[in-house]
Amino acid sequence: MTLFRQFFVAHIKGLLIWMAVGALMGFALTRSVGTFVDGGIFEAMPASMLALYGDFTGMNVVDIYLTISVGKGTVLIPTLYAVIMALSIVTREVDRRTVEFLLALPVQRMQVLLARLGVLAVNVTLVNAAIWAVLRFDIAAQGYEGSWAHLNVLFVNLWLLCMALAAVTLAASMWIDDYSVGVKLFLGLVTLTFFLEYVFRGAHLSRAIRLITPYSYADLAMVMRTGTIDTLNAVVLLVAIVGGLAVSFWAFNRKQFSA
Amino acid sequence: MQAIHVENLTRLYRNGRGIKGVNLQVQQGEVFGFLGPNGAGKTTLIRTMLGFMHPQSGNINLLGMSALTQSRAIRARVGYLPSDPALYDFLSGQQNLDFALAVRGIKNRSRVKELADRLEIDLKRRLKTLSRGNKQKVAIIATLAHDPDLIILDEPTSGLDPLVQEIFSSLIREEQARGKTVFMSSHVLSEVESLCDRVGVIRDGRIVTVDHVENLKRQRVKYVSVEFRQAAPDLAKVAGVKDLQVEGRKVRFTFHGAIDPLLGELARSSVVDLSLSDPPLEEIFRAFYEGGGGGR
């Protein structure tokens, strides 16, 4: 618990910033919900253009707006945050050499990793929760009704996506000791795949090809339409989480902290 | 009882550097100096002892426990000061120390206050606002605050001003007087000379020699200066005489080994003045560092 508290304190400023950024971005989007819903913008959009964001067959306009707001907007905030948090677990400690201070204490490496993963999970949940709360309550406050239960499931899917990205990043970071290199590499990759997913949809590529981008494992339109997470997506994300963490624990236990 | 027992320890990097077949024993209550040039393997040995690196072969026992299987229990009783310590910059000195002590399960902060007073450091300030020397002071407190039985110091006085170095030296002497074992790597030889009982010298990953400081100084090299009444005899033929300089009736040279043959040779001539002095440790260890094996 001492380790968890220490690491949580270490990230509290960053957490508040990311929560604020996510909430503000959500708020900026919710303020325009009336324009889209009452203005008939979605109805006026060509079907092929709307298809870029997913399959919205039979969905109400507020749910479409929620799906697009999250899927092509706020989703970047928690996913980028998850990647940065994952890089801070080992790579930043090594880069700043505070890892020596930690490892000289009577703690097992597993404890260090578990405490940091606990903080990552809590913080990613809080950033997602901040965005969810703004979308959920500000849209409702403006008198619009969405499928709120489905929105909850959508955020569960997003949380799984964040954790999967974090687990894979953490595993890879075991071989990266330079924090700035890690940040540039992973933020670049995540941002690139975010836009690739968009491009792949526009190019009507098959789902098999789209699956190379992590964002394709959160089919938000389908979640908002059905209120369930696609089984294949859920399995892939869980495998990525478990596999990433297993590799991380294995590698961290064997990592050599040389001068 | 041995506080440190290292047996056939090997930890090599991909470039072939590291430590090779290191054997080392340090007795409880001893202050042991570990010397070597940069890249000789000092820090690698310390990091391997503390479990930061895993050895490729060999055994390490610290305080009677295996460093390979009981590392956590060992670290509870070890204080480690890295050569360039890094603590959490966004926390104050006190918060860093509170964290370390909380992890160690220690509630009493009286030792922290005592050490902070001795080292004259304000622990309320954030680390990022402190100078390198003051950060080093916080790290010294973190090393000693939990009253460790074994204190491992890697270049401990780098960054400290001479006054604080003196306080640090007295802290180490006090720890030794309380029966604590100190293992310190350094290349500040005067510091080793004043603090350590024994020293080990490492070169290219191998221990070259381990001996008492006094023995090394006494047995290895003497500076000799002689003034004869008549012309100086040919001392170059005497075993152990090196760097012979003759200036009329005065000769100066370094002498290695047993002194009897030299005294016998000098007794054949009429000597006006004779002076034998110990060279500074630097001179002795330079020979080891350069591969001369102590000049023998």
The number of helical elements of chain B comes to: 10
Q: Profile the largest sheet of chain B.
A: 6 strands, mixed
Q: Overall 3D geometry of chain A?
A: elongated
What's the CATH topology label of the largest domain in chain B?
Answer: Rossmann fold
Features:
A: 259 residues, mainly alpha, 0% strand, B: 296 residues, Rossmann fold, Alpha-Beta Plaits, six-stranded mixed sheet, four-stranded antiparallel sheet, 14 strands
Written account of the structure:
The complex is a heterodimer of chains A (259) and B (296). Chain A has helices at residues 2-30, 33-38, 41-44, 47-50, 61-74, 76-89, 91-95, 98-103, 109-141, 148-173, 179-202, 207-210, 220-226, 231-254. By secondary structure, chain A is mainly α. In chain A, helix 9 (109-141) packs antiparallel against helix 10 (148-173). Chain A is elongated, with a radius of gyration of 19 Å. In chain B, a hairpin with a 2-residue loop joins strand 12 (241-247) and strand 13. The longest helix of chain B is centred in the middle third of the chain and has 16 residues, at 162-177. Chain B is elongated. The mean pLDDT of chain B is 88. At the A-B interface, helix 1 and helix 8 of A face helix 1, helix 2 and helix 3 of B.
List the helices and strands and how they pair.
The complex is a heterodimer of chains A (259) and B (296).
Chain A: H1 2-30, H2 33-38, H3 41-44, H4 47-50, H5 61-74, H6 76-89, H7 91-95, H8 98-103, H9 109-141, H10 148-173, H11 179-202, H12 207-210, H13 220-226, H14 231-254
Helix pairs in contact in A: 1-5, 1-9, 5-13, 6-9, 6-10, 6-11, 9-10, 10-13, 10-14
Chain B: E1 2-12, E2 18-27, E3 31-35, H1 42-49, E4 57-62, E5 65-66, H2 71-76, E6 78-81, H3 93-103, H4 110-119, H5 132-144, E7 150-154, H6 162-177, E8 181-186, H7 189-195, E9 198-203, E10 206-212, H8 213-219, E11 221-228, E12 241-247, E13 250-256, H9 260-267, E14 271-277, H10 281-289
Parallel strand pairs in B: 3-8, 3-9, 6-7, 7-8
Antiparallel strand pairs in B: 1-2, 1-4, 4-5, 9-10, 11-13, 11-14, 12-13
